[in-house]
From TrEMBL:
SMART domains, per the entry: PDZ
Full protein name: PDZ domain-containing protein
Pfam families linked: PDZ_6
Origin species: Thalassiosira oceanica (Marine diatom)
Superkingdom assignment: Eukaryota
UniProt lineage: Eukaryota, Sar, Stramenopiles, Ochrophyta, Bacillariophyta
Length: 156
């Protein structure tokens, strides 16, 4: 009886391949984002003695002619908010891949990114555009966590 119910449900579920799953976020193999590579770093760095360490997400690099470059984002800016989500909440941290998923979206839609630079917070309202990302950087499955298997560098 239960197996019949499960079979009935599963018969209507199509297998989703990676290309179909990521199609809303890609355009001919290109991701729509803002053109930054993020890295998770210790604050302060581990070689500096401190009572408390935290993790911050910084912009490691910016793609030329990207929305991020045109808006004025800079290397080493600290990502503190994406849209309504606070990244620097203190009690937990986000991996770069999680922030990347918040930033990515449909081409031409906007995303608000707030960064901290030299003690000041700066808000950017950016329009997503196709960003060049090598095919081998796309996740193989929707639940795969490439950041846990490779260096924590992701390009939104």
């Amino acid at each position: 009886m239960i197996s019949d119910t499960i079979s009935a449900v599963l018969s209507h579920v199509d297998l989703v391949n990676r290309d179909a799953l990521y199609q809303p976020l890609t355009q001919e193999g290109r991701i729509c984002g803002i053109g930054v590579k993020l890295s998770l770093v210790h604050d302060p760095p581990l070689h500096v003695k401190a009572e408390h360490y935290s993790y911050i997400n910084i912009i490691e690099s910016i793609e030329r002619s990207s929305p991020a470059e045109r808006a004025g984002l800079r290397r080493d800016d600290i990502i503190v908010q994406v849209d309504e989500t606070q990244i620097d909440c203190g009690s937990s941290f986000f991996l770069p891949e999680e922030i990347t998923e918040m930033i990515r979206g449909v081409e031409g839609t906007s995303v608000v990114v707030v960064v901290e630079r030299e003690g000041h917070r700066i808000k950017y309202d950016l329009l997503r555009q196709p960003i060049s990302v090598p095919e081998d950087k796309l996740p193989e499955t929707p639940n795969a966590s490439p950041a846990r298997k490779a260096p924590l560098q992701v390009t939104p």
